[in-house]
Amino acid sequence: MLAFVKIPEVLPKQKLTTAIRALPGQLDIVGFSLFASSAIQLLLALQYGGNQFSWHSSQVIGLFCGAGATSVVFIFWDYRQGDKAMIPFSMIRKRIVWSSSLSYGLLMAQVFCLLWYLPVYFQAVKSDSPFMSGVHLLPSIVAHLFGAIFSGKIIQRVGYYLPIILICSSLMAVSNGLLSNLSPHTTTAKWVGYQILSGASRSLGLQIPIIAVQNVLPPSQIPLATALVMFSQTFAGALCLSLADTVFTNSLSKLIPTYAPSVDPQTIIDAGATQFRSYVSEGQLDGVLLAYSKSVGRVFYLTTGMACGCLFFSCFMGWKDIRITKSVSNA
């Protein structure tokens, strides 16, 4: 398709040899190294906390302190580099850029968490195989596909992207709130309906942050702004998945002693969603399943908060008609 489709050039393109010679000077290697080390330390602290080490252990506290100190150095370096920095302050200060980046990051983070922990619910609580847990995700996937088809037409007809992203994030908050009520006895009709609402709502706003920056900023700033929006998706997704894992694991370790006192929580956590049944007696199974479903529900509390955050930051994306106006000349 790329071989036969001609993509219009918004900006003049440099020669290949010129671009290769200029590339090393445009890369902020120091900034990337500082940001990467800070992010890795933060993710490791969230991963280790409550799992391999306690939250007040020297390892976790040291990682948090290292992440904070490195991020301060990164901010100083980023400010010093100016427009040559990996994340230029002059760009992220623009309201349309930071609001679109935060909205898109939170939107995609809750999608990643949903697609990760719904299969955990199906495999652990409903005793599905990994294959069938994927099949049971089809309601959200199909709704997402159909919603994506119609969302472009809706944006084209309405012209203003702000009301659509507000409706999208509001419905996402509702759908995640409904999914947080999943239990061992949730009927098929309910989890199918919840997934349809989730898939359809997120598909409405999936393109809007990118459309917003591409229609508000001048052509010379669009590539960098689009890269920042896409970067927010990756970083927020990784960060929120680590947070979700922390919430889920700590919830399991606290709820299993409550609902199944004779079961070792660490054994259930180490066994995983598909193997823990072999370590649980018939009399304790119902309690473990209830602890699992409530732990997944607490993850969906987190995704509900992400959707609410997306709703809040979307309010700053501005009110702009992106429809192409045709000028009519009098003959």
Question: Can you characterise this structure?
Answer:
- The protein is globular and about 70 Å long.
- The protein folds into 2 domains: 28-87; 93-314, Growth Hormone, Chain: A.
- It is mainly α.
- It has helices spanning 16-26, 29-48, 58-81, 89-92, 95-124, 130-135, 138-158, 162-179, 188-205, 208-216, 222-259, 265-271, 282-314.
- Helix 5 (95-124) packs antiparallel against helix 10 (208-216), helix 8 packs antiparallel against helix 13 and helix 10 runs antiparallel to helix 11 (222-259).
- The longest helix has 38 residues, at 222-259.
Structural class: mainly alpha
Gyration radius, in Å: 23 Å
Please identify the top-level CATH class of the largest domain: Mainly Alpha
Query: How many strands in all?
Result: 0
Name the average pLDDT.
85
Distance between the termini: 41 Å
How many helical elements?
A: 13
Oligomer class? single chain
CATH-defined superfamily of the largest domain: MFS general substrate transporter like domains
Q: Are there runs of 5+ residues with pLDDT below 50, and where?
A: 326-331
Total discrete domains: 2
Helical percent range? Answer: over 70%
CATH architecture of the largest domain, by name, is Up-down Bundle
